[in-house]
Amino acid sequence: MNPELTDTIIKTLGEAKIASPVRKSENGKPECSFQPDEDRVLVEINTEKILEQIRLGIEPASFEKAGPRSHIFFDPSKVRCAIVTCGGLCPGLNDIIRAIVLELTYGYGVRGIYGIRYGLAGFIPEYRYDVVDLTPAEVEDIHGSGGTVLGSSRGPQDIGQIVDCLERMNVGILFTVGGDGTLMASTRICDEIAKRGLKISVVGIPKTIDNDIFMVGRSFGFETAVEMATAAIRTAHTEAVGYPNGIGLVKLMGRHSGFIAAHAALAQQDVNFVLVPEVNFDLEGENGFLKTLETRLLDRGHAVVVAAEGAGQKFFEGENAERDASGNLKLHDIGMFLKSEIARYFDSINMEINLKFIDPSYMIRSHPANSNDNVFCSFLARNAVHAGMAGKTRLLVGYWHDQFVHVPMDASAGKRKRIDPNGRLWMSVQEATGQRSMTNAHESCE
Ligand SMILES: Nc1ncnc2c1ncn2[C@@H]1O[C@H](COP(=O)(O)OP(=O)(O)O)[C@@H](O)[C@H]1O
Ligand SMILES: O=P(O)(O)OC[C@H]1O[C@](O)(COP(=O)(O)O)[C@@H](O)[C@@H]1O
């Protein structure tokens, strides 16, 4: 184990003892000193008290702290591990894969590490996706690239077949890197493992640039996404001030939660309107978006509008509601909608505008992680390895109140973190944009 990292973890987490399964043999190669102990059992992180608090709507004061444990469950010389990345891309996926491989190899002396191609589909024989052997050499340079070297996918896969594959490959620890869908799938994989009485740990690493995973304070890639979104807003502002009655309209990702839009608007305070899924707004009327935009143009001559993709979906009610392969509702394009509504409105009042629409969504999502996210990914991944090697299962490695912690999968699955319309973040957005009259008059969407 990297002594520097170990020290940091000891200081941060106050761990008294550190697992040290690897020692150097006479020829300098790592050798496992771990003696399997029959009494050791896989530990389900399913703390009843935490789940009960969440059921009652009380924020849990703490979770079990993440970090290396004094006893490990799996024999590093025998255990095989698998990594799978699922759902939409996110900056930092390759950093996570790389850090898992390096910690397993150099921290614990594990040799058999497999990469599953194209998400959960990679477990299913009919797709014929080859498994990748993940070695330090294989992952050496991947952290500089966006996306995931393993590939990803959406779409339902048979849980029985996934566990069959884990059995066939003799996998002891499965690392699932994904969002709320992956979390649901992971809990079902855990159920099937338990039903079959297998000794397989499933450790989740929460992934979503939307930063909306429940009971996870910060998800990797979010900071990179905000940075990139801020650059797009800056461009929109430059374009808007460059022409008479210039309007810069930026659409950002955020299916259910507008965290990227809210944070980026606060980072680049040239934004006049932030539209998020959590807060309703009207188009027409005195306090409606279009009239408020007109007032802003008459007052200052330019405006910047930032819309998260899940905002204003009520305007499409009654239209076809399609779903993607994973069952997520396909959203109507709020950016294109606002673009045409703005054009229609100003045409109707005979006022000339210059509108520039920017949609940087996929440029943001496929970007490599920034330095802070690089560091964050490394800690998340290494803590996931510690949890897995210690025989913990059915948990997510999360970041909660400035600590890396073990979040029971069941505490997070099926729920979502959203902007509180009465909370400090949204208040700050309203103050920074001056849009209070437009969105304050309306209720939250849920
Ligand atoms: N309720 C569920 N049960 C089992 N598998 C699920 C469930 N929801 C999603 N999945 C699977 O998890 C994978 C990732 O889900 P998806 O929603 O696409 O992305 P994300 O994990 O980023 O939310 C997909 O293969 C999807 O079919
Ligand atoms: O175009 P795609 O691949 O369907 O992904 C779009 C979705 O990706 C996200 O950024 C993240 O979604 P997931 O967490 O489900 O992967 C959503 O905000 C957005 O709706």
UniProtKB/TrEMBL annotation:
Binding site for Mg(2+): D180
Reactions that this protein is recorded to catalyse: beta-D-fructose 6-phosphate + ATP = beta-D-fructose 1,6-bisphosphate + ADP + H(+); beta-D-fructose 6-phosphate + diphosphate = beta-D-fructose 1,6-bisphosphate + phosphate + H(+)
Binding annotation for substrate: T208, I209, D210, M253, G254, R255, E309, Y362, M363, I364, R365
Enzyme active site: D210
Cofactor field: Mg(2+)
Keyword Magnesium found: yes
Binding-site residues for ATP, renumbered to this chain: G88, R154, G155, G179, D180, G181, T182
Residues of the Phosphofructokinase domain: 80-387
Signal peptide (UniProt feature, chain positions): none
Recorded metabolic or biological pathway in which this protein acts: Carbohydrate degradation; glycolysis; D-glyceraldehyde 3-phosphate and glycerone phosphate from D-glucose: step 3/4
Sites marked Important for substrate specificity: G181
GO MF, any single term: metal ion binding
Pfam families: PFK
A GO CC annotation given for this chain: cytoplasm
Enzyme Commission number(s): 2.7.1.11
Domain of life: Bacteria
GO-annotated biological processes: fructose 6-phosphate metabolic process
Keyword presence, Repeat: no
Known function: Catalyzes the phosphorylation of D-fructose 6-phosphate, the first committing step of glycolysis. Uses inorganic phosphate (PPi) as phosphoryl donor instead of ATP like common ATP-dependent phosphofructokinases (ATP-PFKs), which renders the reaction reversible, and can thus function both in glycolysis and gluconeogenesis. Consistently, PPi-PFK can replace the enzymes of both the forward (ATP-PFK) and reverse (fructose-bisphosphatase (FBPase)) reactions.
Record NCBIfam families: PRK06830.1 (NF005301)
Family to which this protein belongs: Belongs to the phosphofructokinase type A (PFKA) family. PPi-dependent PFK group II subfamily. Atypical ATP-dependent clade 'X' sub-subfamily.
Subunit note: Homodimer.
Protein's name in the database: ATP-dependent 6-phosphofructokinase
Species of the source: Desulfatibacillum aliphaticivorans
Lineage: Bacteria, Pseudomonadati, Thermodesulfobacteriota, Desulfobacteria, Desulfobacterales
Name of the gene: pfkA
